[in-house]
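Sample entry (382 residues):
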Amino acid sequence: MTAGLAELPTEVLSSIVVHLRTANALLHLSLTCKRLHDYIETDGFRVFVKNCFPSIHAPPHWKDAARSLTDLSRSWDRKAFSARYLIPPTKDFGRSTRLYERRQTMGYQPVIDSYAEQTGSSWASQKEVLAWGAGAKLIVRMINPDFGKGRMTGSVNQSSLWMEVAGGKEGRDDITSVNLLRPNQKAPDTPEQIIIGRANGELERIQTPYQDKASKSLSKYFTGGRHVRSAAITTTRDPLLAASLSDGTVVVYPVHGVEPETRIIEPFGDVSIKTVQKFGKIWTTRFLAPALLAVGSGMSKKPLNIYNTGPDRISNIPLRSYQPLADDWWYDAESGKEAPINSVYSIAPLELSSSGGGNDGEVFLSGWFAGAIQQVHSIRDS
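Predicted structure, serialized as tokens:
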């Protein structure tokens, strides 16, 4: 006698689920009978997520994860996305004071950082922190289901908290880099800590407002007055900070300093990046792994370079260098002829668990100037 679908063992049902492509398909299957409903709720969504999205580190709320990741996958397939904009509550934020003592030192650069942390037993129980530079000011928005009124200064609307950190004069003191320290990089139950770089050469770690206390500076990083172009930190518990400066130098610091109470932190290493044009500069710095720093510059014959880093060093010679494609020919100021030169504006590492990955940081993406080319690189390639 032929067994019905609901009578099949769990192992066979799991083999069927791996062929389903959407969360709705699982939901429809679960509506057929109680036996399949119990299986889908208990095991089906977990099997679906792990099979269809093996590279995603989803929290174990499998039904919600299946729905969210299916929507995300559909958006990628359609080359579409959903977006929303955020406007700080005007009543809690002072008017912008635009004081220009001189011409703006560098063009506006949108800089932003964020993270999310699972705090409860449901998919919705997440703490979300978003920070971005708005001229010379820093805007921070936090969402936490555990927020209670009066715990922190700022505007509390249900579970939302907005904060504004003043930063000097517009133009001269514009924020050019923002890096949020993750929960594992600071003491538990402490305010957010953010490393911000400015066009005036300041690079410092600050603490956001907490209870009745205003924001405060925790440490500063010595730049010699050179403008900060970009900055990045590692994901390790004792993170490193890499910053590109206006003279084409990349400097590396320990975030917390050698001594716990260090207020002025000196770099332990630096490397100079060469470009071929007078207007060339370093566009981006990004840690691919704790020991791998990627630097994108331009215009250059080798606009993408990978350097080895350590707790107290950075190599002067790149581990790997990447050249533009053969058809990316531009005028070379050094030779007076056209040559394959280009610029790299963005770098993004692929997670270790992604398909085709290997060791941490070995595979990454880069965005180039010519034709907005997006390239996939592997450090393992010879």
